[in-house]
Amino acid sequence: MKSDRLIYGLLALAVILTGTAAAPAAAATADAPRITKEEARALLGAPNVVFVDARTESAWRKSDRKIKGAVRIDKWDLQMWASSYPDDMTFIIY
Fold it and tell me: What are the pLDDT digits (tens) for 26-35?
């Protein structure tokens, strides 16, 4: 399910960013597929791919490095946001 993929991806990112891995989060990250930056670059502009910037609002605003076309979502809007896309979308969360 699309929202499951997104949730697993966000959990994986949360574990990476915090440096901590509780048992349930570690199990979720094992299911999240990983790709290299080269593989991600090849998917830029693909019609069925959405790049999701998972940084905080303040970190995102301060950064001068953003992937063109990426969307930034607030973690509290995740369910509503994911439901606005078709089921065949692939989400790349960074």
Answer: 455 667 789 9
Overall pTM > 0.70:
no
* DSSP letter string, the chain: -HHHHHHHHHHHHHHHHH----HHHHHHHHHS----HHHHHHHTT-TTEEEEE-S-HHHHHH-S---TT-EE--GGGHHHHHTTS-TT-EEEE-
pLDDT of residue 39: 95
Do 11 and 54 contact (CB within 8 A), yes or no?
no
Query: Which of 30, 25, 27 is CA-nearest to residue 11?
Result: 25
What is the C-alpha to C-alpha distance for residues 38 and 33, in angstroms, rounded to an integer? 15
